Amino acid sequence: MRFLLISMIVLIFASCSYADDFVLVKGGKFLMGSPSSENWRSDDELQHEVTLNDFYISRYEVTQQEYKKLIGDNPSTFRGDNNPVENVTWLEAIEFCNAKSKAENLKPAYEIEGSKVTWDLSADGYRLPTEAEWEYACRAGTSTPFNLEHSIGADEANFYGHYPYEIEENYFSQHKLSTKPGIYRGETVEVGSFAPNKLGLYDMHGNVGEWCWDIYDNYSKEAVTNPAGPSTGTRRVNRGGGWNDFAKNMRSAYRAAAPQERRLYNVGFRLARGVVGTGLISSLASQQTSGTGKKILIAYFTWSGNTQGIAFEIQKQTGAEIFEIEPEKSYSENYNTVLREAQRDQHRHARPKLKNRVKNFDEYDIIMLGYPNWWASIPMPIASFLEEYNFEGKTIMPFCSHGGGRFGQSLTAIAKLAPKAVITEGLSVHYSGGGALKDEVRNWLENNKVEAH
Q: Do 146 and 279 have their domain in common?
């Protein structure tokens, strides 16, 4: 393993050249994923050997100025010419790649037919990096959780700096942390605002997550060469974490996933080009239809009552049936204690047993799923709920209460646990929402084409 790592470092740095805003990364072998000893790893990070050909990757995330110049529109939530473009779907990122290729008289890498995209490996145009290329470039020869080889801090990346790596289990003993809490900017910043990694690539951790080519699925256990993910599925991979993510979800090996049609305010992309050989790869990732029915269930887990208040407002406006998700063993009523309990359950990937079941679950077409944002993800009773029922063909409309991190990585958790469900635009409410809650709920329902009661 040591020889493999040394070989990778030599291959990367032996012939690393810069042309315009792209870096030529020499191919080689590396261990993709995370070792079982890495703290806060997920089960889908199985470590395996990957061999890659040479490829180019851009130093910076695509900016709003670049995107608007080619596409004529700027969908970003946080405006700034040199800030990364975000709130773009995977398909829109693919379209940008082709538009930039055509503008520079290069052969477009993609043929787009609805939700089916075919990648021409021989094309010299712009494309998204594969998931393996992204991780190889991010690591830049490292095998640690972050490419800095130490726990990342808020002066080194743009993320939810109040929550550095491993704070979850050390929240009340922060002297044990190798990196202390820092600033939370709460928005994107200009690309290149922090030092690059050893390859000269900026913002591989934080600012915005970055769409990759691959459809999400579990890794192969076998050694692979130039992997490009499965040919079918329902989710696309994005990597690196964004401005509102906790450090644990910015690790080099962390995998986020979302439907390719979904816009996310913390996800953008960076570009890649050749050099990958010849042939075609067809990829089809689309959400399943939810059927013609519109029977709605509001299912929610609450602790402080904030999420329950949102659920009641939704019920008031829709007249939908409502169900409270309750674990058999309740969490503590003490705030400090519940913080410990919540992170403990997340760390263990616990599945608390639930007190009650939904009667006639199959009759519902839309599940409005509510929860508080706990440690940047879903509370584990929500995981139990998602695994207890068959969500195939159903639509999930997520809503959450939060203290500043919006959805965190909870949408990724839902996407992975309910891969055959359609996931719509979500509603994140700051604490209880206050006087704005009624309008926020109304707008959310309208955007998702749900009629008010």
A: yes
CA gap 209, 61 in Å, rounded: 9
Q: How deeply is 329 buried, as exposed, middle or buried, from its count of CB atoms within 10 A (0-12, 13-18, 19+)? A: exposed
- 99 lies in some domain: yes
Write out the H or E segment, with its range, that includes residue 345: helix 335-348
**Which has more confidence, 288 or 14?**
288
pLDDT at 2 over 80: no
Q: How much is the pLDDT for 425?
A: 95
Domain interval for residue 401: 296-447
Question: Per the domain annotation, does 133 fall within a domain?
Answer: yes
pLDDT of residue 277: 63
∠ CA 211-217-220 to the nearest 5 degrees? Answer: 115
Q: Which helix (H) or strand (E) holds 258?
A: strand 256-258
- R_g over Cα of the chain: 22
Alpha helices (H) along 26-141: 64-71, 90-103, 131-139
Q: How far is CA 451 from CA 94, 146, 439, in A?
A: 33, 46, 14
Whole-Å CA distances, 309 to 301, 306, 371, 431: 11, 5, 11, 10
| 308 and 278 within one domain | no
Q: How many angstroms separate the CA atoms of 288 and 122, rounded?
A: 32
Residue (of 401, 383, 388) closest to 311 by Cα position: 401
Total structural domains within the chain = 2
Instruction: Compute the mean pLDDT over every residue in the chain, rounded to the nearest whole number.
Output: 94
Both 135 and 171 in one domain: the answer is yes
Q: Is residue 291 part of a domain?
A: no
User: DSSP string spanning 295-335?
Assistant: -EEEEE--SSSHHHHHHHHHHHHH--EEEE--BSSPPPSSH
- pLDDT (tens digit, 9 = 90+) per residue, 98-141? 999 999 999 999 999 998 999 999 999 999 999 999 999 999 99
pLDDT value of position 138? 98
Q: Report d(CA 8, CA 122) in Å as an integer.
A: 25
Query: How sure is the predictor about 237, in pLDDT bands with cuts at 50, 70 and 90?
Result: very high
Please state the pTM of the whole predicted model.
0.94
- Looking up residue 17, the CATH number of its domain turns out to be 3.90.1580.10
Q: Are residues 260 and 305 in the same domain?
A: no
289 band by pLDDT with thresholds 50, 70 and 90: low
| Angstrom distance (rounded) from CA 429 to CA 368 | 14
Place of tokens 């743009």: 158
pLDDT in tens, 75-93: 999 999 999 999 999 999 9
Comparing CA positions, the residue from 46, 264, 14 lying closest to residue 135 is 46
